[in-house]
């Protein structure tokens, strides 16, 4: 009997647990450790901010869900991995100590490095959590006049909710924007292509921004934020009255001592998602040092690849399943300007770029389906 330890209860961790449990049944022990007992469906946070859904619609209890599939949940946080002894030091409310493993899956996600941008904490909003999204929603409700700025900080690897927030604001304030009372602007630290891992969607996205009276600015690498102003390292000084930014992303500094991380603390893996130089250890999801945006569907596909390779190893076979890095994302513009993008980041292959109201409905339906599947 093998013990498989999964660190993290987000998209990557939960799907890895599901796949492993389905393949291995009760003949092996699977444990998932995460500090927060609630799973949050992040892609729906923009809808939450704009009052389309409630917090209980996008969260479920990990303990309950994992127990149903025979996976043990431990509330706690990975403090340190000891690869030679194959043990992980965990600190939690109910359990503090070491958990041994035969196979390890690192799925701890990214850290929001707000400290990298002076003034972020005091002067900017984000919506990368339930409370933050609700707070931004309240501020948007109270907003009456002026400029709303949404954007990505340098090293923020999440362009989809930036675009979706701008479209949601444009819908909310359609009349005020037409009267010139409210302006909505979007800023990117580099080009639009760079934000989307090289995908060329600027023609479609820019046309959609224009139709919704949203102005867009590229090559604005935010350096600091002061009261009602964003300053870039290229000399821009942009005034604003409400600011929603995705902060810089970093990996996990607790993994630094293992010599497996890049300069931003993301974990280096090979094509089969094995962590370089660590035996029987895989990393998946936002914590992995891959280029381009960091998206849930990537974490899910990586979880499937890692689970399949662990099952092969347990069965005494060499792992063979390779991961291919691609974007498949819907940018919901609340109607006919919604975009579906399918693009191969590693080989610059555009599979599909489609536009239409259907993709807005499809995203809502997909989100609802995923939430229903995991809540019941
Ligand atoms: C507002 C918003 C909108 C988004 N929209 C989209 C979209 O439209 N499409 C899309 O594909 N993606 C979207 N994403 C991105 C997507 O949510 C992430 O890529 C995805 O959540 C990554 O999954 P993950 O499992 O790697 O990390 P996470 O989901 O972040 O989960 C990490 C887990 O690790 C746990 N953890 C952290 N530290 C430790 C530790 N030390 N020890 C143990 N556990 C730890 C956390 O508590 C959590 O359970 C969006 C994200 C946000 C925030």
Folded structure, characterized:
The chain is α/β, with parallel strands linked by helices and 376 residues long. The chain folds into two domains: 3-110 and 251-314, FAD/NAD(P)-binding domain (3-Layer(bba) Sandwich), CATH 3.50.50; 113-248 and 326-375, FAD/NAD(P)-binding domain, CATH 3.50.50. Helices cover 30% and strands 27% of the residues. It has helices spanning 11-24, 45-49, 62-68, 120-123, 130-142, 159-172, 174-178, 192-195, 202-211, 296-314, 357-375; strands at 3-7, 29-34, 38-40, 59-61, 72-75, 77-82, 87-91, 96-100, 103-106, 111-112, 146-152, 182-187, 214-217, 222-226, 229-232, 237-239, 242-246, 249-250, 281-283, 326-331, 339-344, 349-355. The strands form seven sheets. Strands 5-2-1-9-19 form a five-stranded parallel β-sheet. Strands 13-12-11-17 form a four-stranded parallel β-sheet. A three-stranded antiparallel β-sheet has the order 6-7-8, with no helix packed on it. It starts with a strand and ends with a helix. The mean pLDDT is 94. The structure holds flavin-adenine dinucleotide.
What are the main properties of this structure?
single chain; FAD/NAD(P)-binding domain; alpha/beta; binds flavin-adenine dinucleotide; 5-stranded parallel β-sheet
Helix residue percentage: 25-40%
Bound molecules: flavin-adenine dinucleotide
Regarding CATH, which class of the largest domain?
A: Alpha Beta
Which regions have little confidence, pLDDT < 50, spanning 5+ residues? none
Strand order of the largest sheet: 5-2-1-9-19
Structural class call reads alpha/beta
For the record, what is the CATH homologous superfamily label of the largest domain?
FAD/NAD(P)-binding domain
**Largest sheet properties:** 5 strands, parallel
The average pLDDT value, as a whole number, equals 94
Q: Any idea of the CATH topology of the largest domain?
A: FAD/NAD(P)-binding domain
**CATH architecture classification name of the largest domain:** 3-Layer(bba) Sandwich
């Amino acid at each position: 009997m093998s013990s498989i330890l999964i660190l993290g209860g987000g998209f990557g961790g939960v799907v890895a647990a599901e796949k492993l449990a389905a393949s291995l049944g009760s003949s092996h022990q699977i444990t998932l450790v995460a500090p927060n007992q609630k799973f949050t469906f992040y892609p729906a946070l923009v809808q939450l901010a704009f009052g389309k859904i409630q917090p209980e619609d996008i969260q479920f209890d990990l303990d309950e869900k994992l127990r149903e599939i025979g996976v043990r949940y431990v509330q706690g946080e990975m403090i340190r991995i000891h690869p030679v002894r194959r043990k992980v030091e965990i600190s939690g409310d109910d359990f503090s100590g070491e958990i041994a493993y035969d196979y390890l899956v690192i799925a701890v996600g990214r850290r929001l490095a707000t400290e990298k941008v002076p003034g972020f904490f005091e002067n900017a909003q984000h919506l990368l959590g339930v409370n933050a999204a609700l707070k931004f929603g309240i501020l948007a409700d109270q907003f009456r006049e002026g400029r709303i700025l949404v954007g990505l900080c340098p090293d923020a690897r999440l362009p989809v909710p930036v675009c979706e927030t701008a479209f949601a604001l444009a819908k909310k304030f359609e009349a005020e924007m037409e009267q010139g009372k409210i302006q909505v602007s979007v800023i990117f630290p580099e080009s639009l292509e760079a934000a989307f891992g090289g995908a060329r969607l600027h023609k479609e996205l820019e046309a959609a921004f224009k139709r919704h009276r949203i102005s867009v600015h590229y090559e604005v690498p935010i350096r600091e934020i002061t009261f009602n102003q964003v300053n870039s390292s290229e000399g821009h000084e942009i005034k604003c009255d409400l600011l929603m930014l995705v902060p810089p992303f970093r990996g996990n500094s607790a993994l630094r001592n293992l010599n497996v991380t890049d300069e931003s603390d993301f974990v280096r893996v090979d094509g089969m998602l094995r962590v370089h130089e660590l035996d029987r250890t895989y990393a998946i999801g936002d914590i992995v040092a891959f280029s381009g945006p960091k998206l849930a569907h990537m974490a899910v596909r990586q979880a499937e690849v890692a689970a399949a390779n662990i099952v092969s190893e347990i069965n005494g076979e060499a792992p063979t399943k390779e991961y291919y890095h691609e974007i498949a994302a819907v940018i919901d513009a609340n109607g006919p300007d919604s975009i579906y993008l399918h693009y191969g980041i590693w080989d610059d292959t555009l599979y599909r770029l489609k536009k239409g109201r259907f993709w807005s409905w499809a995203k809502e339906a997909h989100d609802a389906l995923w939430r229903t599947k995991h809540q019941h």
